[in-house]
Write a structure and sequence with these properties.
The structure is a single chain. By secondary structure, this protein is α/β, with parallel strands linked by helices. It has helices at 2-15, 20-27, 74-83, 110-124, 167-179, 196-210, 224-232, 257-265, 274-281, 304-313, 337-347, and strands at residues 41-43, 46-47, 68-69, 96-98, 128-132, 148-153, 183-191, 214-219, 221-222, 250-251, 269-271, 285-286, 294-295, 321-324, 328-331, 351-352. The protein has two domains: 2-299, TIM Barrel (Alpha-Beta Barrel); 304-352, no CATH class. The chain contains eleven helices and 16 strands.
Length: 356
């Protein structure tokens, strides 16, 4: 399969540039083992975050309130992702999202984040997206054509983000990227009752004036700690929560559709999830999860014989593959999880197998 062969070529190229010790460290890293979700694989540019946003989940996961750059070099990180057996390499491969357990563009992580993105773009070519609460650096315009930058804003006051730069500053910096041909998506996340809804129209109007045309709305997910921190800021979300846990996050019961309706009336393209913005910005398509399909699904072309040859090289006998209504791949064999995930990542289509 071409996606499999492409990965082997990338691995060989990077192995020539890394020492044996560097390769070993990268292969032992979780980026080299963690299976991607349908929305892609997340790249960690650091650990911990000092921005102290009241709704942030990382503190309940045990991450600190200070940021430490991630341990791998950019080439090591690209190598770790390439060697991950679940990941499909290439322009139509696994979606890559930068930013999770830290803010990527903190002073401590900014250069490393840019280095990671440039290495992935140059060696792997996978579709890239980054989410930020900082003013995104102008150097992003040089990373990758199609790159999507999620400008994360909860409301224009920034009252729940005491150490983050003002939302207007982020929005204006994202607008400068738009002028340079980079996709910047307004990421209204999380929606906080009594905060986001009070300024939604003003936020959307300002974003439209600055040149934003796409928006993603994200649901607030809470733990006991997050509810307590929000209450300290004068926000009570307890009425919207069925159950609370110490670490497991629970989405609040608060309809996003009314926000989406307002945005559509104002001319925005409303996307169902952040990964959809990555797909659309790159002019691609994906049908892997229930939020989609996203993009023009006619672009999802599957070479049935290519899939069969891949499975045969992986030891499966008498393989039969078919594409169902252009949105699902049917295979007459039960697959090992590693092969199923890789094929789904390489084709952007879910795999249907025989029942046990």
């Amino acid at each position: 399969m071409e996606a499999w062969r492409a990965r082997q070529r990338v691995i060989k190229t990077l192995e020539e540039e890394l020492s044996e010790e560097e390769r070993r460290e990268a292969r032992q890293d979780h980026h080299a083992r963690r299976p991607p979700r349908p929305c892609g694989i997340t790249i960690h540019t650091g650990v911990g975050c000092p921005l102290a946003c009241a709704y942030c989940y990382i503190y309940d996961m045990g991450f600190p309130g200070s940021a430490k750059p991630y341990k791998l070099s950019p080439l090591q990180l690209a190598y770790a992702v390439a060697t991950n057996p679940h990941v499909a390499v290439g322009p139509w491969g696994t979606l890559v999202a930068v930013g999770s357990v830290t803010e990527p563009f903190l002073p401590q992580t900014r250069e490393l984040a840019l280095g990671y993105m440039k290495a992935i773009a140059a060696y792997l070519g996978n579709p890239l997206q980054v989410s930020t609460k900082m003013p995104p650096p102008p150097e992003l315009a040089e990373v990758q054509g199609g790159l999507d930058v999620l400008i994360s804003v909860t409301d224009l006051s920034g009252k729940l983000e005491p150490r983050a730069p003002p939302p207007l500053e982020r929005l204006r910096a994202g607008a400068e990227l738009i002028k340079r041909g980079i996709s910047a998506t307004l990421f209204v996340r999380p929606i906080v009752p009594g905060v986001t809804d009070g300024e939604l129209t003003r936020l959307l109007a300002l974003a439209a004036e600055l040149g934003y045309r796409r928006v993603v709305f994200g649901t607030l997910r809470v733990t006991k700690g997050i509810v307590a921190r929000l209450r300290a800021f004068g926000v009570d979300v307890a009425p919207y929560v069925r159950e609370l846990h110490e670490r497991r996050q629970t989405p609040i019961r608060y309809p996003k559709e009314k926000f989406a309706a307002v945005a559509r009336q104002m001319g925005f393209e409303v996307l169902p999830a952040s990964c959809a913005a990555n797909v659309v910005a790159h002019g691609q398509a994906c049908a892997l999860c229930g939020w989609g399909p996203c993009g023009d699904v006619k672009k999802l072309k599957v070479d049935v014989r290519d899939v069969e040859e891949y499975l045969e090289t992986r030891g499966y006998k008498s393989v039969e593959v078919s594409v169902v209504e252009g949105l699902k791949i049917r295979i007459n064999k039960r697959l090992k999880p590693i092969d199923k995930i890789f094929l789904e990542q390489a084709t952007r289509l879910p795999i249907s197998e025989p029942a046990r």
